[in-house]
Write a structure and sequence with these properties.
This protein is an alpha/beta fold. The protein has a single domain (3-199), classed as Rossmann fold (3-Layer(aba) Sandwich). 28% of the residues lie in helices and 24% in strands. It is built from five helices and ten strands. It has helices at 51-60, 72-81, 89-108, 137-142, 189-199; strands spanning 3-9, 27-31, 44-47, 65-69, 114-119, 121-123, 129-131, 150-157, 160-164, 184-186. The strands form two sheets. It has an eight-stranded mixed sheet. A two-stranded antiparallel sheet has the order 6-7. 35% of the residues are buried.
Length: 207
């Protein structure tokens, strides 16, 4: 059972930049939106928004960490590819495909693998935040964040970038007890990866 981790944040809040400290033999990046990384890098990257390709890459990966960036475009691109298709079936397909991908992560990938779903967030009329999705099925029937034990939010203030580790009451941020002592940590996904591995005893910080 691999560990899915959800990283939420507005555009430009540091989600992709948080990958900067990984080495090429430590993580593979599935680039859904096709945009260049916001830092100089030799990280292994594949550009695709095709679910079958994504699943094949994940199953065959030799690295222990994978980042899907930006994951919400799997849904958005599928919607746009089928924009002229009438009816609600396309929304059911969009929800099912994304749910299936998370379930594959949980049930079919190795126990020592971590998959990071980097995604934009959206706010309702009351200011409550959640992952940006397409249609209502994932929100009303599933609740995407409910499939994740760890949900972090990328934020910035005073020209610096951070991950928020605990909810502020209006978002879906969460992490296991005692995994992170601070409400805000540096937006370094490599450090987060080491912390998660140490917490679950799947190969943590090197001495």
């Amino acid at each position: 059972m691999a560990i899915p981790v959800l990283i939420l944040g507005d555009s430009g809040s540091g989600k992709s930049t948080s990958l900067r400290n990984f080495q090429s033999n430590e993580i593979g990046i599935i680039n859904v939106s096709g945009k260049p990384l916001p830092f100089r890098s030799k990280l292994n990257t594949i550009k695709t928004d095709n679910y079958m390709t994504v699943e094949t890459v994940m199953k065959k990966a030799k690295v222990k960490s994978i980042a899907i960036d930006d994951a919400q475009y799997l849904m958005a691109n599928e919607f746009m590819h089928n924009a002229k298709v009438n009816g609600f079936q396309k929304f059911t397909d969009i929800a099912l495909n994304f749910w299936t991908l998370v379930q594959l992560t949980i049930n079919e990938l190795p126990d020592d693998m971590i998959v990071y779903f980097l995604s934009h967030l959206e706010r309702d009329g009351d200011g409550r935040e959640k992952m940006k999705t397409i249609g209502r099925m994932l929100d009303e029937k599933i609740t995407v964040e409910g499939m994740f034990t760890i949900v972090l939010k990328s934020i910035s203030h005073d020209g610096k970038y951070f991950f928020r580790t605990h909810t502020n009451g209006n978002d879906t941020v969460k992490s296991p007890m005692e995994m992170f002592s601070a409400d805000e940590i540096e937006n370094d996904l490599k450090m987060v990866d080491e912390t998660i591995r140490e917490y679950y005893n799947i190969g943590g910080k090197k001495e």
